[in-house]
Amino acid sequence: MTIKGFTYTAILYCVISALPAPADTSGILIGDESDGSRSNFVHQIDLLDEEGEKIFLDDEPLLPFSTRQTCGDCHSYDKIATGWHFNANRQTASPGRIGQAWIYVHQITGTQLPVSYRPWPGAFRPEQAGLTPWKFAQVFGRQMTYPMGQADESEPDFDARWMVSGEVEINCLACHDAEPAHNHAEWALQTAKQNFRWAAAASCGFASVAGSAGDMPDMYDPFMPPVLDDARLIRPSVSYDRGRFDEKGGIFVDIATKIPVERCYFCHSNQDAGVEKWLSNEDVHLAAGLVCVDCHRNGLNHAIVRGYEGEAATSKNPLAEVLSCEGCHLPGDSCSVPTSGNSAAPEPAHSGIPTVHFDKLTCTACHSGPWPKQKTIRTKTSRAHGLGTYNSNKSEDALPHIVYPVYIKQADGKIAPHKVVWPAFWGWLKDGAVTPIAPETVVSAAGEVLPQARQASLSGWRPLTDEQVVQILTSLSSYDSDKGAPVYICGGKMNRLGEAGRLIEQENSGAGQYGWPIAHDVRPAQQSLGVRRCEDCHSTNAPFFFGQVEIDSPLQSQAGRVKLMTDFEDIDAFYAKAFAFSFVFRPWLKLVTIACTTVVAAVLLLYAFKALTCLAKVFACQNNETSREY
Amino acid sequence: MILKIDNLKKLAACVWLICLVVLSATGFGPWLVLHKRLTGYWLMVHVTFAPVFALCTAVLAVMYAHNLSFDKSDRLFLLRIFRRRKPYEEFVGNGSVIVMKVCFWLICVSALPLFLSSVLSMFPLFGTEGQEIMFQTHRYSALLLSLFGILYTYLLIRTLLQKR
């Protein structure tokens, strides 16, 4: 290169270097950022299979679309997967406030065990209950929202068949599909059939799925399906509604960002015992025209606002502080600009309510859940009872048994209404801690002691006698002494073998109730606690303090046990009673105080007039003296 | 009869004083010692003594109002203080007595917001902000009443000792 050429090159280099660098858009996909238009983006899109290949209707075999590939083509799937609904099994995710755990039920062994990948106090890790990711996905896949697959196996699981079933992907359509034909019950059905790969397609209105991966041999390859030996078996397959596709092979998917409440309801419904659906009211916010996502908002990272007090401390969502009960309904002074009144939220007057109530109670204590009765009621939830799925058990006695409202003092010192489940499980006691035993192990140890599966009643507990428990514990004792002593946790107590082979009951921290605070359904203000008078709570038989909390147990000898609400509120029952009793005299207190005030005021007024008279006389005298001087 | 009324006065004053001590202790104790609001057993004791205190205050207001009303001697005393004493006027009141009288009337005055703030907050009249104002009114009028009560008692004891 000549000197001239070198000079030109150097100048060119300098000019290029001086130019502003293009914005770093690495990793940002076209759908990750909004252009600001409030209109709905029409999703006329190509469907992609799990390999990222476009699906054509003439493909052989015709594969189900993958949400990871199809939606992930324009939206950062991995970033979305960090969101609250999808990050439970990620070690790095913040657990946040305790929530509803999955409840693993095994009727025959008398097991109802709260399990969660989140480290919530009182909930066990699924592996501890013998639930590998493979098994977990089949048991709870019906309403499980987080992705799960081979990578989640911490230990080799020889029962797992992720290659046959496909992995569980985030089902974006579960929430965002606004099409009325979307049927999440189909998703639930397909997960039970091990059709994880096909589940999302089955749930949407433009595809249908047949067959079962669970029936296929372990070496079944869905991409090159072999001829099956058994003609009765149907291989999993998908078919699409051809009329929905355009000439380029694209399809319109009715995607909504404002999620319809029905989508949320599939996993977040409630059915109280003895209350038919048509007899119950919806949350007052929904009745006012809001939808869930008006408050429970999120951005691309899907760090959805849960809406509890103090969430802002752990949430990545900038609206976490604003979109709580207080944030919307009370004019706060923490922000530089007014932020309350979202969605026309009214500011409550709380007339006549001493402010100490706001230090000791959450908003939900008075406003959420059913009006408390003398005894807690049983309720069923979508995630615990598979509400909305095909063949869900409609019996009021269906397991697990969840009772509410139970008013429990939280870590922040405030009392809040909770749903409660009493753990019942077999476990090993070692160094004071109890580790669950997988129900299958208990079944094999129990032999003929437990009723066989076919004998089990359709719903509710198959009651266990003390003798049965003693026999099973004795049998388990011979299993593995290194793991500890076998115990049976139920009814809030730990049962173990005592001397002479008798069953003894002991306290253990692992035997306590598992409760999670509730926020919905919010009742109208006219139905909030204390709206009529103080005696709604401060009377000697008010359920808020003196209601009975059912202690559920499969053990016959523990049937009918209850605890007093004050036990959960960390309040001395005698004090609560005495305080409530004092309200009998409150009208007298008011009367006496008003009367005394009147008397004191009258005396003051009388002598004020007298003083005025004296003053007038003094001035009168002075005037006379003055006039005399003149 | 006079003796009986005198005894009644003394009894009412004693009960009032006991109530004042208990109410001050239960009212300010949690606030000063535990840095907490008045709740629990403290509150129950407070509320139990409160109506007795109110009753005694009303009784004492009626019974002592005449005795402790300002008269000519007090005016002369004040005039002497401000150096405007007239030479022909002989009798001059005691300074402690005047302060006691002032305290008595200030106790009566501060009792009004004290009682009203507690009783009105029990009716559904005031919202959260109003309740907070009522609470602060109760707290500070109680503080004033306690101070005047202490001062009055101190002067009363001193006067009695001086008489002996």
How would you describe what is shown here?
- The complex is a heterodimer of chains A (630) and B (164).
- Helix content of chain A is 27%, strand content 13%.
- Chain A is an alpha+beta fold and 630 residues long.
- Chain A folds into four domains: 43-74 and 146-253, no CATH class; 261-399, no CATH class; 420-582, no CATH class; 585-630.
- Chain A has a five-stranded antiparallel sheet. Chain A has a five-stranded antiparallel sheet with strand order 12-11-13-14-15, covered by helices on one side. A two-stranded antiparallel sheet of chain A has the order 1-6.
- In chain A, strand 9 and strand 10 form a beta hairpin.
- In chain A, helix 7 (184-192) packs antiparallel against helix 8.
- Chain A starts with a helix and ends with a helix.
- Mean pLDDT of chain A is 88; it is low at 18-25.
- Chain B is mainly α and 164 residues long.
- Chain B folds into two domains: 1-67; 71-164.
- Helix content of chain B is 80%, strand content 0%.
- Chain B contains five helices and no strands.
- Chain B has helices at 2-34, 40-65, 72-81, 95-120, 128-163.
- In chain B, helix 1 (2-34) packs across helix 5.
- The radius of gyration of chain B is 19 Å and the shape is globular.
- Chains A and B meet through helix 13, helix 20 and helix 21 of A and helix 2, helix 4 and helix 5 of B.
State the gist of this model.
The complex is a heterodimer of chains A (630) and B (164). Chain A is an alpha+beta fold and 630 residues long.
Could you tell me the strand content of chain A as a percent range? 5-15%
Helix content of chain A: 25-40%
State the distance separating the first and last CA atoms of chain A: 124 Å
Reported for the largest beta sheet of chain B, the result is: none
Shape of chain A: flat
Mean pLDDT of chain B: 86
Shape of chain B: globular
Largest interface: A-B, 37 and 41 residues
Secondary structural class of chain B: mainly alpha
Given the helix and strand composition of chain A, which structural class is it? alpha+beta
Count of beta strands of chain B: 0
